[in-house]
Amino acid sequence: MHDKLARLAKRRESLVAQAIVQRRILTQNVKPWLVPLTLADQGLSVLYFVKKHPVLIVGGVLLSAFRSNPLGKYLRQGLVTWLAIRNLL
């Protein structure tokens, strides 16, 4: 019985040491991929956000288009005037 426990303890010790070596090797192999995978993950997060909130994206695009376009100035003034009149009535 004692022999069996000693063999199990030795086997466990060997397996733990082997796991430590495997973790170190895995860390060395994964390290070069850490930055590219992080960027890919962030890109996927942006895509999921766009998929869930398309109205925000369209609004942002329209807002930037209106700001860079002289017509946007008149549209903003018209919107402000319309909202003011609507609130007064």
UniProtKB/TrEMBL annotation:
InterPro entries: YqjK (IPR025612). It holds the Pfam family YqjK. This is YqjK-like protein. It comes from mine drainage metagenome.
